[in-house]
């Protein structure tokens, strides 16, 4: 199948230009001037992109599909989650395989391969969450890297479940540096948080908003500073996941100003939602459970700092931390005890719609939109240039993006399995009309044309920025 996307404007992280894009064999084979269209054999299919943009498909570098947490499991599996992602213009994801305490990294990777194989509708890779890395097990990290899983996520929070002490974190950082792997850090000071949670419950504070009030900005800022200090001592890069607050961002900015290889992502919920959403409705404060995620939503004034961080390259990536739980039967586990509300929100489908609002409001340029949603995660996580760009030889993961298409982010329109929409009633302007994954048209005008199980596992190269 030879496909021509004609009369569009190509937008990459660095350039904007009129071009026709030719696709064959799952790759981009030519970029030609619209006035001189002929390129080899005629196209079997033509798509007219007049008035639209041709973008590289989105890469969501932070998802949690089919993930056990808090006595339940995230409601989107690799089938529903990747179909929803495709509808929103995301053509590759990087999910997290989770090592069980006392288990091996290899067992975790095998488990997540089983979860994804035969289900994923778009291409996918894995990070490895390491929860138990005694010195004797550090050698196993090399085997994981050889399997194409070249990043490891470590936690400073969730004692007895995910938390690692600083000595273990430092050993893992040193080993990652030897292997060319990247350490991703959940940077919160978790032990004091547990004390605050305990005290809040003892005082009868059970509502969802106390999830935020017991995880203060200082805990994230301190965790971020610790993570950067450990990485500096180990002389390795570090990537801070889901950064939510001004003071944590200032720690990243200071490190980058000193020339340290420090990278960070934020998420749409920290750009568009706030602590007020956690307070629920006047007649039902538990409605705020919809918005319980970690780190928590912050007061609204943090939005401007995060947008400025994206515009100034202090933040490199916007991922979703998609970890959806239904209100009924899942979030309800925390009714009467906010600490038992499963942490996470649906977002894999709505990321690009929301970020385009930043373009329309001139907070970021179109090129920066492409960079933070596709090109930067491709470069940081070993997928570039086959992903994250519109260039000859790259995988034909492409979007035809209509900058004027109106789309309502309501539960009835979206394809994620959560029983609510985080941005219910919000109408966005800007959406994909056509989504290609390796040259296959998988979504056309919100109609899914792909198939379950067509997604391929992405073996990623080691960190090389």
What do you see in this structure?
The structure is a single chain. The chain has 465 residues and is α/β, with parallel strands linked by helices. The protein has two domains: 2-55 and 394-448, Urease, subunit C, domain 1, CATH 2.30.40.10; 58-380, Alpha-Beta Barrel (TIM Barrel). It has helices at residues 78-87, 105-116, 140-146, 166-179, 190-202, 210-213, 217-234, 246-257, 268-272, 302-311, 351-360, 366-380, and strands at 2-11, 16-24, 27-32, 45-48, 53-56, 58-63, 68-69, 72-73, 90-98, 123-129, 151-155, 182-186, 238-240, 262-266, 317-318, 398-408, 427-437, 440-444, 447-448. The strands form three sheets. Strands 1, 2, 3, 4, 5, 16, 17, 18 and 19 form a nine-stranded mixed β-sheet that branches. Helix 7 runs parallel beside helix 8. It is globular, with a radius of gyration of 21 Å. The relative contact order is 0.18.
